[in-house]
Amino acid sequence: MAEGDAGGDARDPADGGDASPEPDGSGSPGRRVGLTGLATYVPDEVVTGEEIAAESGIPERVVTEKMGMREKHVCPADDDHVSDMCVAAGRDALADAGVDAADLDLVLYHGSEYKDHVVWSAAADVCERLGAEDAYAHESYTLCAGAPVALRHTAAQIRVGDLDRALLVAASREEDLVDYGDEDASFMFNFGSGAAATVLEADPADDRTRAVVRESAATTDGSFSRDVVMPAGGSARPPSHGTVDAGEHALTVPDPEGMKERLANASAPAFLSVADDALAASGCDRGDVDFLALTHMKRSFHGYLCDELGVGEGGSYYLDDYGHVQSADQALALTEGLDRGRVDDGDVVLFLAAGTGYTWAATVLEWVDG
């Protein structure tokens, strides 16, 4: 694991309730925010890289090695909607935290906008099905950058006393929206299905704290806002027999070469900028990162970011057996890292993500329960 002086109290294990950390760059003033529950869910059905290659016409070696897709989990057509997957992950996260749903103040959904129904609150549905009768339901959309942003916003509410206990859930089955015959959409062929859930609490006891939520950073380049679209289905082009017949209800990239060229210049600096800013605000730097929980991306770029942030092979988990599960990626990677003994007590864990739009986001966790 990486060594380094995190500065201030950023590497200091949870102390059972110091409600007033100094605003010295090592953390926001206010109550300590603990992550007490973590869970993930994936459906049983899988699609292999070999199958994706056969359907898309892309060589299997490119799919499995360059794109990093050995397999991914997918949902049956009429089962495992995002609400179902969130309920499954949410129930397990609550059990992990030892929290009753009735004691929640907030249920936040930060997953895909492609849900059971359009113009509909998955958060409210999850809230009802889990029995969180005293919580309010809220949704947050930052696409694939959703996990660090949801942690950031909820932690801020907890620090100032707006709420005491929250369940964050996310799920995606955007694999449904991918057309493997559309070469322009090939960077989305890694879309898989699954869910993640976390429980955040104010000043939890040491023996209930799995991690302490530190600081965050984010940036957006809105020039990419129209680069990934589903042509029909919204108010700009309402659904019709014609749009369905024309196959306009799948995600595509109108200008793939232009997007690729612009993103190549923007993405790496943006990833590293938000990582550095979140680390600095937490009293850390790149040398302090022990585990990187990163959005699924092509294998070479994942390796580049790991190298730049100073984590070796044992300091991350590459999701080539999950694919890209929208804002569940960070929890999936962390869970796999924990299962493999790659995360220890006192480690600095960096959630790092990017979502089309384009937003890059990072949140720092200090892991306490290794």
Helix/strand class? alpha/beta
What is the CA-atom radius of gyration, in angstroms? 20 Å
Strand order of the largest sheet: 5-4-6-7-1-8-11-10-9
The main β sheet shows up as: 9 strands, mixed
Could you list the spans in which at least 5 consecutive residues all have pLDDT below 50? 1-26
| CATH class term | Alpha Beta
Order of helices and strands: EEHHEHEHEHEEEHHEHHEE
Number of domains: 1
CATH topology: Peroxisomal Thiolase, Chain A, domain 1
**Spatial separation of the terminal alpha carbons:** 12 Å
Describe it.
With 370 residues, the chain is an alpha/beta fold. 29% of the residues lie in helices and 20% in strands. It has one domain: Thiolase/Chalcone synthase (Peroxisomal Thiolase, Chain A, domain 1, 3-Layer(aba) Sandwich), CATH 3.40.47. The strands form two sheets. Strands 5-4-6-7-1-8-11-10-9 form a nine-stranded mixed beta sheet, with helices on both faces. The two termini are 12 Å apart. The N terminus is likely disordered.
Task: Write a concise synopsis of the structure shown.
By secondary structure, the chain is α/β, with parallel strands linked by helices. It has one domain (1-370): 3-Layer(aba) Sandwich (Peroxisomal Thiolase, Chain A, domain 1), CATH 3.40.47.10.
Task: Please describe the topology of this protein.
Elements: E1 33-41, E2 46-48, H1 49-56, H2 60-66, E3 71-73, H3 82-97, E4 106-109, H4 122-130, E5 136-139, H5 146-159, E6 165-172, E7 194-202, E8 211-220, H6 241-245, H7 256-281, E9 289-294, H8 299-308, H9 329-339, E10 348-355, E11 359-367
Parallel strand pairs: 4-5, 4-6, 9-10
Antiparallel strand pairs: 1-7, 1-8, 2-3, 6-7, 8-11, 10-11
Helix pairs in contact: 1-2, 3-4
